[in-house]
Design a protein that fits this description.
With about 100 residues, the protein is mostly helical. The protein has 1 helix and no strands. It comes from Aeribacillus alveayuensis.
């Protein structure tokens, strides 16, 4: 009877060891899958980082263009102001000349 019990216990230990080996293999495979997923995610983050760098470069270019356009608009506005002032001065001068001519 003790031989049978020992054999049963030994058989149970062997089965548990096999289950543990199988479980270890499955766990290792699962970790390998998870590692591959993390590598894919890391790669995707690298791509996103590159895209963000490109987007930032584009924003910098747009910002420079906007600054340039703002300067040009300011220059145009200043030029218009000067022209309006000169036109006003010319009209005053024409009115003065007209009044002088009307006196004669």
């Amino acid at each position: 009877m003790s031989n049978i019990s020992n054999e049963m216990i030994l058989q149970a230990i062997k089965e548990l060891a096999d289950q543990l080996k199988n479980h270890t293999k499955e766990t290792n495979l699962r970790f390998e899958q998870i590692d591959r997923r993390f590598e894919q995610i890391d790669h995707r983050f690298e791509q996103i980082d590159q895209q963000l760098v490109q987007i930032n470069q584009r924003f910098e270019k747009v910002e420079k263009k906007i600054e340039q356009m703002d300067k040009q608009i300011t220059d145009v506005a200043n030029g218009q102001k000067i022209l309006v002032e000169e036109l006003f001065d010319n009209k005053k001068e024409m009115k003065r000349v007209k009044n002088v001519l009307n006196m004669f």
